[in-house]
Design brief:
globular; Protein-Tyrosine Phosphatase, Chain A; 3 domains; Rossmann fold; 15 helices; alpha/beta; 6-stranded mixed β-sheet; UDP-N-acetylmuramoyl-L-alanine:D-glutamate ligase
């Protein structure tokens, strides 16, 4: 790893390849706040690139060797390949080059309190919960979220203290380049098998992440997860456990749900009542996310009443059970779920939401994930009355012909009586507009651009009723 120090007075101008990404843009904006000169490029213009330009960044649309200025450091996103013309040009000019994760790690060194939230699922929601609780409690943290959070007007907020809150993604073990003083591990499952060899490889990566935390720091661990329990004996820092089923430091008891499926429950610390908590987001999985947030922020010194207040009004981030609208008595919801466990959790949340029938429109994300987890996907849609599968979203991959959305439909069909393949978005919208009934809940699901189906359907049905 190249030795870079952001305190080096020689680093004044940083260029980002792929600056429009949700994480890259947040890092670029944070560096702008530290008075670095920022330039960057992305394949498409967006609200994010427009915002960075307004803040003083020099933005180029499209990748070209001509975009690379004489600068001090080049940062690239994981989507950038070795043949990228800007990456090659940086090499020709002898400019130091690092990836996004290393850049974020270097930024964490500027904060004496860095909170990093990891796990296969729930990172964005839990990062948002922790961030807003700390802000509400007067900590004034700098916040980097892997999604759009209305309360901070986007994916980043520059704070005024030595606290930083960020997500820690395990993909390609990027979180091993971080420097957390408090870490959270929410859960560990088989995921990103285009990189990891198997589940054991994944657990070892999370163990290494936990061991990055200094001895005086803290690891908040969700103890109900057997894979997390397996790594705890190898952790050297202070361990704070939380759980619902396993005996833990922080425990949830007496879970109930209101008419919208929003949970309320009691939390105990060392078997003494800490407080009563009400959530404004649905689902058992959000109880788990909230519990980790409670344990982390309370450990940092946030008052219980402030935690209760902030969780009680938290409405979630974009694309996490995001109610797009109600039209013709049909509720249209969008969710980022793209892993079998996430699908099951989201459908469980939907079951407690008012509905007649639940329609799940799923867009598989990447060929590798669809193929490697096919059997898991096949049994994850039992909570839906009707399932529609769209074409696979390729993301960073190329179609080798080994797997197709029809293969997933066939696998689901062995366990679910009503599943269909409809590849294109317009055809899906047309089908839904003709076959759904008043009272139905239509749930678009996936990490790609499937949210467009919900938006298109909302527009079409509004025009028809107008």
């Amino acid at each position: 790893m190249m030795q870079i120090d952001l305190t080096d007075q020689g680093i004044k101008h940083v260029h980002f390849i792929g600056i429009g990404g949700i994480s890259m843009s947040a890092i670029a904006e944070l560096l702008l706040s530290f008075n670095y000169r920022i330039s960057g490029s992305d394949m498409h213009a967006s609200k994010i690139t427009d915002k960075l330009r307004d803040k003083g960044a020099d933005i180029h649309i499209g990748h070209s060797s001509d975009n690379v200025p004489v600068c001090d450091l080049v940062v690239y996103t994981a989507a950038v390949k070795s043949d990228n013309p800007e990456l090659k040009r940086a090499g020709e000019l002898g400019i130091p080059v690092i990836d996004r994760a290393e850049m974020l790690g270097l930024l964490m060194k500027k904060f004496s309190n860095s909170i990093a939230i990891s796990g296969t699922h729930g990172k964005t929601t839990t990062t948002s919960m922790v961030s807003l609780i700390l802000e509400h409690s007067g900590f004034q943290p700098t916040i980097l979220v892997g999604g759009e959070l209305d309360e901070i007007g986007g994916n980043i907020k520059i704070g005024e203290s030595d606290y930083l809150v960020t997500e820690a993604c395990e993909y390609v073990e990027s979180f091993l380049k971080f420097f957390p003083t408090l870490g959270i591990i929410l859960n560990i499952e088989a995921e990103h098998l285009d990189y990891f060899r198997n589940l054991d490889h994944i657990i070892k990566a999370f163990t290494k992440f936990a061991r990055l935390i200094p001895r005086e720091g803290h690891l908040v661990a969700f103890k109900d997860d057997a894979n997390i329990r397996a790594l705890l004996p190898h952790v050297t820092c202070n361990i704070v456990t939380c759980g619902i089923k396993e005996e833990s430091d922080y425990m949830v008891r007496d879970i109930r749900y209101n008419h919208l499926g929003f949970p309320y429950f009691d939390v105990y610390l060392h078997n003494k009542l800490l407080g009563h908590f009400q959530l404004n987001v649905p689902g058992y999985h959000n109880i788990c996310n909230a519990l980790a947030s409670i344990a982390a922020t309370h450990t940092l010194g946030a008052p219980v009443e402030k935690i209760q207040e902030r969780l009680g009004i938290f409405k979630g981030t974009h694309r996490r059970f995001d109610v797009l609208g109600v039209v013709n008595e049909r509720t249209i919801v969008d969710d980022y779920a793209h892993h079998p466990t996430e699908i099951q959790a989201t459908l469980q949340a939907a079951a407690n939401y008012p509905h007649n029938k639940i329609w799940c429109v799923f867009q598989p994300h990447t060929y590798t994930r669809t193929k490697s987890l096919l059997k898991n996907f096949a049994v994850s849609f039992s909570g839906a009355d009707k399932v529609i599968v769209a074409d696979i979203y390729a993301a960073r991959e190329k179609d080798t012909g080994e797997i197709h959305a029809r293969d997933l439909v066939q696998a689901i069909g062995e366990h679910h009586h009503d599943v269909s393949y409809i590849g294109g978005f317009s055809d899906i919208v047309d089908y839904l507009s003709k076959h759904t009934q008043p009272g139905d809940l239509i749930l678009t699901m996936g990490a790609g651009d499937i949210y467009r189906v919900g938006e298109m359907l909302l527009t079409e049905m509004t025009l028809k009723t107008g």
